[in-house]
Automatic annotation (TrEMBL):
It catalyses: Thiol-dependent hydrolysis of ester, thioester, amide, peptide and isopeptide bonds formed by the C-terminal Gly of ubiquitin (a 76-residue protein attached to proteins as an intracellular targeting signal). PANTHER family: HIV-INDUCED PROTEIN-7-LIKE PROTEASE (PTHR13312), UBIQUITIN THIOESTERASE OTU1 (PTHR13312:SF0). Hydrolase that can remove conjugated ubiquitin from proteins and may therefore play an important regulatory role at the level of protein turnover by preventing degradation. The keyword Cytoplasm applies. PROSITE patterns: OTU (PS50802). It holds the Pfam family OTU1_UBXL. It comes from Thyridium curvatum. This is Ubiquitin thioesterase OTU.
């Protein structure tokens, strides 16, 4: 019976079809040929663990790899030297420039995680009022997630009127709240995170940079993801086995019994706080940028929320108060 698996590496994803009488050695040779890389390690399972490639004569049927996605981690020198596999060359497009955190050096966006053989890293989202949806969409590997997640959240709210009543929805009628949510300028927050946890059956942990607080949505779930909240912006926290690997090889989900990942994520948040990677909403004045409004609405998060409730506007800019 054929055994099919996917191998995800820095240069894309390859599908491997093996026979159940293959040994691990045969599988490794096939991966070397198809992915054009000679030295590498393989990780499988959930949470990912490294396969012992020295056990060459192990029957692969004993490893239960059918349907699995294996993560290929090349040896360091191979990251620079290995060619793009032939099957991927025609599809290769120039990559967009990496979005860099404001005021944070690149080496301040990672923490080593030697117990897991890699790093916990910050994946910074564009500052476009849909950062929360983009951050979570990457967890679930959803392309262009903002519009889709806004729509799904809206449907979820309307389908659960007992839970998502006017009292929960910032004193707004559910239909009005859902209508405003579809505006690409409107931010997502705790209500949307609660909905996404229920829709996708995953625990979402949001770590506040300034206060080191962990807000958890979805108690009792089996898996979790982690977002980082820096005052008015969300980013994604991910695990990478090598810093040179592409974003699509990230691990973004962990078992909820894994408290080590929360500890490491809080270390990363503390590191970012030292770099002032947060916005203090109590120490800024806010301007509404919606055409026709365009006036200063006050200072602090309360005034911002009040203005949004009254007008539905959610396009703001901040101006730091002088010391």
């Amino acid at each position: 019976m054929p055994i099919r698996m996917r191998v995800r590496g820095p240069w894309g994803v390859e599908t491997i079809q093996a026979e159940d009488d293959w040994t691990l050695e045969q599988l490794v040779k096939t991966i070397q040929e198809k992915c054009r890389v000679s030295e590498f390690s393989l990780k499988s399972g959930y949470p990912p663990s490294e396969l012992d490639l020295r056990a060459k004569q192990t029957p692969i049927k004993d490893l239960k790899l059918n349907g699995e996605t294996l993560t290929l981690v090349p040896a360091a020198r191979e990251l620079e030297d290995a060619p793009v596999p032939e099957a991927k060359r025609a599809k290769t497009v120039p990559e967009a420039p990496a979005f860099q955190p404001k005021g944070v050096e690149a080496d301040e966006t990672t923490v080593e995680w030697p117990e897991q053989g890699g790093y916990l890293v910050l994946r910074v989202m564009p500052d476009d009022n849909s950062c929360m949806f983009t951050a979570f969409g990457g967890v679930m590997q959803i392309s262009d997630p903002a519009a889709r997640l806004r729509r799904e959240i809206g449907e979820h709210i309307l389908n659960n009127p007992d839970k998502y009543s006017k009292a929960i929805l910032e004193n707004l009628d559910p239909k009005v709240y859902v209508e405003r949510l579809q505006d690409p300028q409107r931010w997502g927050g705790s209500i949307e995170l609660m909905c996404l946890s229920e829709i996708y059956n995953i625990q979402i942990c949001s770590i506040d940079v300034k206060y080191a607080r962990v807000d958890t949505y979805g108690e009792g779930k089996d898996t979790r993801c982690i977002l980082l909240y820096s005052g008015i912006h969300y980013d994604r926290i991910a695990q990478s086995f090598e810093l040179g690997l592409p974003v699509d090889s990230d691990v973004t989900q962990w078992g909820t019994e894994n408290d080590d990942v929360i500890k490491k994520a809080k270390e990363l948040a503390a590191q970012l706080k030292r770099q002032d990677y947060y916005t203090d909403t109590h120490d800024m004045v806010i301007r509404c940028n919606v055409p026709g409004c365009e006036h200063w609405i006050g200072s602090g998060e309360k005034d911002m929320v009040k203005h949004t409730k009254e007008t539905g506007h959610a396009a703001f800019e901040e101006m730091k108060l002088s010391d």
